[in-house]
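Ligand: EPS. Inputs:
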Amino acid sequence: IDYVTAGESHGPQLTGILSGIPAGLKLDLAAINAELTQRQGGFGRGNRQKIEHDVIQVVGGVRHGTTLGSPLALIIQNHDYQHWSKIMNPTTPNTSSNNLRQITRPRPGHADLVGGMKYGHRDLRNVLERSSARETAMRVAIGNICQQLLAQLDIHLVGYVQQIGPHQITNDPNLSVQQIRELIQQNDLRILDQNSVASLHELILQTKRNGDTLGGVVNVLAENVPAGLGSYTSWNTKLDGRLAGAVMGINAIKGVEIGAGFTAAQKYGSQIMDEIAWHPDSGWTRLSNHLGGFEGGMTNGMPIVLKAAMKPLPTLYRPLRSVDIKTKIAQKAQVERSDTTAIVPAAIVVENVVAIEIAKVITETFASSNLNRLKQELASYREELRKY
Ligand code: EPS
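Predicted complex:
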């Protein structure tokens, strides 16, 4: 599995090409659209999401609803383009009348300044348009297709919000993916503890009134992942490393932990290693899961537990100090429309990016041109592991 996305935030559309999905997967477009709608939601979003109604169009790689094994071609329209069709037109020449809304005062913490320096852009909109997290809509669509493949293999995962700004949300490490899915649907913060909702709404509203923004932490739990995905044999085959890279590749993510992560550093080995057990019916297991489902860069059959830290969004309504790239005069950064927090969409994006990496390693490990063959191979592999 591999993928590439293209498209600017206020351009005509987002485009995605996803290769390596086995033939024979019945695509559930309604499920993709439901996931896209979820990503658009969450308390703390700005006004752009009132304009967008993300819907997937599949224009290649699928026939009569079933994948062909060829690359999937995917489109999501940007409805806001109708307001930007002059300024963001891909083909009309650059004239004074369609060159409006230039950005010359870079926002600290955003890609604006370094992106302009690197690519030689004098209008930082050329950077903002692609560095925008709008792109993650396509990653979520691609991730949902990968989740549909994983569901066929009885592998399930969920991403949810663990912390917003300084506020940690009560967690329960014993909940299943299904239980978490039910709990997070009961509020618009994708959190487990319904009692925290009102105070977190107030925190986000107060932050908005202050012209400020908030980040947070998201958790991902993946269940029934077979042992032995990834490899200890070379650094770049370790799956935990690949997951960390993919998650760090999401806008605004500044940290990734697997299992106990940084807290493992404070403990004794005897407190952190997950002791080994064996049962005649279920085979090999661990008596705890401090290592988050990984040993030697390989899955060990325990649930994958991953955390990602998101920094607060850099677009502030009460802007910070910057310098105009044309005049070199010190000025406040440009104010652009934005969200107060995007931690809810981030949880969905991280979930889907993890799904893509797991689907990727599975299709690399097992024969995967056809879904039925992949199912059979994985089932016999699971059986082999059980008997080991
Ligand atoms: C974003 C700024 C906002 C967000 C956008 C990401 O867009 P706009 O500048 O049009 O108001 O709404 O996110 C999305 C459009 C999306 O679909 O998630 C940014 O600067 O990254």
